[in-house]
């Protein structure tokens, strides 16, 4: 069975400093991995997706994530945090089904706080 | 947020009311999903429709009744809900077949009194 573990429930950084949100996954095959972001009282927005084309994936708003198979990790980073980055971030693995749909397995989420 | 829309955005209902949540996707997708997001709990997949056929029902109580009249619309009919059903209900869509990225709507914040 596939699973996702987000190692930090809360991360707090100062504006302008780097962001690191950690995620480990468990999958019996090469997975599709995602990071989604959720701002307060909003739906989930796709940040980036890994599909095995490249291990370093660039997403929106300056975020990127690196797939490391040997470590079963898919950590999310950003060089310089902005106040608008404060939100909840979800690491997600996808399980495909033959009926033309898939199921997303969500991590518990990491709440990112950005201080001036 | 124009790809997947949800109405209403906020809903307050009593335990004896009947209401419906609506989701519409403008992305040409063939699969649609309902999720429940409660405070302090991971997102829970409730229902999946693929090509307008329900393919997943994750042990959801019968007081939640989904409907997918066509590939662009998804409804969640609610009746005799409980206060613990208060949550953010999210709709998502994906497709075509083989593409597993799900796109989410803004959600409906439901409060059951």
Q: What would your notes on this structure say?
A:
- The complex is a heterodimer of chains A (116) and B (113).
- With 116 residues, chain A is mainly β.
- Chain A contains no helices and 12 strands.
- Chain A is 0% helix and 58% strand.
- In chain A, the strands form 3 sheets. In chain A, strands 2, 5, 6, 10, 11 and 12 form a 6-stranded mixed sheet that branches. A 4-stranded antiparallel sheet of chain A has the order 3-9-8-7, with no helix packed on it.
- The mean pLDDT of chain A is 93.
- Chain B is globular and about 40 Å long.
- Chain B is mostly beta strands and 113 residues long.
- In chain B, the strands form 2 sheets. In chain B, strands 2, 4, 5, 6, 9, 10 and 11 form a 7-stranded mixed sheet that branches.
- In chain B, 0% of the residues lie in helices and 57% in strands.
- The mean pLDDT of chain B is 91.
- In chain B, a hairpin with a 6-residue loop joins strand 4 and strand 5 (44-50).
